[in-house]
Design goal:
With 176 residues, the protein is mainly alpha-helical. Helix content is 68%, strand content 0%.
């Protein structure tokens, strides 16, 4: 069905372009990727690229938006369940995980925290910044270590850290 915006050929072409951009982002920052490189890797011409995206940034925004939209928030009953659901998605899409958790590659985490921030427990803005920085760094370590822990184990680890489960016994040993 030619002419329909979301036909299979158009979806395939967008996917090929996105795959090329994700491949290039594994070794370069977004501002060092050219449309010419993307087209060469995707085996398409520039006109085809510009039919779908204005530039590489627009393509990355599309990848990020599609990922966020793919998260099914309706079934989430608690923040920990929501976190585990998101970690499962990253676990399934390891290539995207590597992209997200390397500094300077995308703004996906920021966008996700903006979108899901309204559903988080009510905390003061300084606590929010502190917690988000800690969670992001735990997730970066998880990805850099090869995602050896399951999403469920990482979620439990983050919850334990957020609620400082091990801190009291450590504090007692230091004082004692």
């Amino acid at each position: 069905m030619v002419g329909i915006k979301n036909n299979r050929r158009a979806q395939y072409t967008r996917q090929v372009i996105q795959d090329a951009v994700l491949s290039l982002l594994e070794s370069k920052t977004i501002n060092n990727i050219t449309v010419t490189e993307v087209c060469k890797m995707a085996d398409i011409n520039r006109t085809t690229f510009y039919r779908y995206y204005d530039d590489v940034y627009h393509c990355v925004d599309g990848i990020e938006s599609e990922f966020i939209e793919s998260l099914n928030e309706g079934d989430v009953e608690s923040p920990s369940q929501g976190m585990e659901m998101v970690l499962n998605e990253f676990y399934q899409r390891k290539r995207l995980s590597n992209l997200v958790f390397v500094e300077g590659k995308t703004r996906l985490l920021e966008k996700m925290f903006e979108d899901f921030g309204d559903k988080a427990p009510n905390v003061d803005e300084y606590q929010d910044v502190y917690l988000m920085a800690g969670i992001q760094n735990v997730l970066k370590k998880w990805v850099k270590d090869g995602m050896k822990l399951t999403p469920h184990e990482v979620t439990k680890k983050i919850i334990s850290l957020v609620f400082a489960d091990d801190i009291q016994s450590l504090r007692d040993r230091i004082k004692g």
